[in-house]
Amino acid sequence: RAKENTKKDYFYYNIKLIEKIEERKRIKKILEKALNNNGFELKYQPQIDLDNGQAEYLEALIRLKEYDISPGKFIPIAENSGLIIEIGRWVTKRVIGKISTDLAKGKAPKKIAINFSVHQLEDHNYIKFLKETLQENNVAPELIEIEITESILIKKEEEAVKFLKQLKDLGIKLALDDFGTGYSSLNYLNYIPLDKVKLDKSLNDKFLEAKASAMGNLIKLFHSFNLPVVAEGIEDKEQYQRLQEKGCDYIQGYLFSRPQKWEKIKEITTINFIEKINEE
Ligand code: C2E
Ligand code: MG
Ligand code: MG
Ligand code: MG
After folding, report:
1. Distance from Cα 113 to the centre of ligand 3, integer Å
2. Would the CB of 91 count as within 6 Å of ligand 1?
């Protein structure tokens, strides 16, 4: 009987594996199609400055227009298939183009953060591409922030450090994303020219209530390196109040706003988000 069960398990295991491979192939085709047919769009989520309630930064987050497949699912497939390089360039070009059109209309531009995957290091001409795109659109590099994760330092340390220094020389801002999900050696604080650290949602959910003082110390640690701190994934007011008490600088989360279409950006720049949630 035991033998039979093993055989059965093996059979189901194989089926599951085949299903997974088929699913990945299907999504890869969708991504290829989206690249060719304008099938991606960007949503923008504000990061609220706790000093004044304003959205000084917006993070660009990619979506598939016609499919309900989250980036958490399709970005890893884009990474493993190499499509991330073309997708990454599309995102960069789109963001810079959007800022440029708004500059032309005389609207105050906002600083925009772009996510950058470790696999994009394979795009050896990315820096050149970025520089040219900024120049063509007449956009100041200081308006762009690039978000990296620790994985970039773990996988390709030397190459990554060189790349990040080139970005900084260009005038681009640099944020460390998803802090608290990796190995967090902290050693890189000595040699990576960061401008900001983003605390991952999981860290905020785990520690804000039970270990608020630890969160306060963590924020102080980053402040001692002159790094402002953003807390990600904040959904309720209590979390916001705790973070405010602990000296957190920015909050990004559904409490203040979900990612929005570009058309909403003008309105977003006029809102005092702290007053808004206090009225509710
Ligand atoms: P991320 O860079 O850490 O982005 C933050 C994610 O948290 C976004 O998910 C955002 O919608 C979500 N979020 C924000 N506030 C809340 C909240 O209060 N509650 C909850 N539950 N979630 C919140 P999203 O847009 O699904 O993106 C997931 C991940 O996919 C991103 O995580 C990023 O790693 C990746 N990604 C998204 N867009 C791009 C892109 O253009 N390029 C690359 N390379 N990666 C991207
Ligand atoms: Mg991010
Ligand atoms: Mg994050
Ligand atoms: Mg402050």
Report:
1. 11
2. yes
Which residue's CA lies nearest to atom 27 of ligand 1?
71
Determine the distance separating the centroid of ligand 2 and the alpha carbon of 197, expressed in angstroms: 11
What separation in Å is there between the alpha carbon of 231 and the centre of ligand 3?
Answer: 9
* Protein residue closest via CA to atom 45 of ligand 1: 115
How far is the C-alpha of 74 from the C-alpha of 67, rounded, in Å?
11
Below-70 pLDDT ranges, the chain: 1-4, 106, 108
Q: How far is the CA of 83 from the centre of ligand 2 (A)?
A: 19
- What tens digit of pLDDT does each residue of 153-205 get? 887 788 899 999 999 999 999 999 999 997 777 888 888 899 999 999 999 99
CA atoms of 56 and 175, how far apart (whole Å): 14
26-37: pLDDT as tens digits: 999 999 999 999
Contact 213, 183 (CB under 8 A): no
Q: Which residues contact 149 (CB under 8 A, 6 or more apart)?
A: 118, 176, 177, 178, 181, 182
CA gap 205, 190 in Å, rounded: 28
The pTM is what?
A: 0.95
Yes or no: say if 92 and 62 are a contact pair by the CB < 8 Å rule. no
Cβ–ligand 1 distance for 180 under 6 Å, the answer: no
